[in-house]
Amino acid sequence: MRHPRALKTIMPAWAAALMLAAGPAFLMAPPAAAESKPAVAKDARLAGDRERTRFIADLSKKVEVHAFALGNPYRVIIDAPDVSFQMPAGLGKETRGLVTAYRYGLFAPGKSRIVIDVSGPFLIDKAFVLEPRDDQPARLVIDLVPTDEKTFLAKLQESKPQDTSAGSAPPLPSPSPSPDAKLVVVLDPGHGGIDPGTKSASGTTEKEVVLAFAKILKTKLEAGGRYEVHMTREDDTFLPLRERVAFAQKRVAGLFLSIHADYFPDKPEIARGATVYTLSEEASDQEAKDLAAKENFSDVIAGVELPSDSDEVLANILIDLTQRETQNRSVVFARSIVGELAGKGSLHTRRLRSAGFRVLKAPDVPSVLLELGFLSNPEDEKRLVSDPWRERMAGSVVKAIDGYFAKRLARNRL
Ligand SMILES: [Zn+2]
Question: How high is the pLDDT of residue 222?
Answer without folding.
Answer: 96
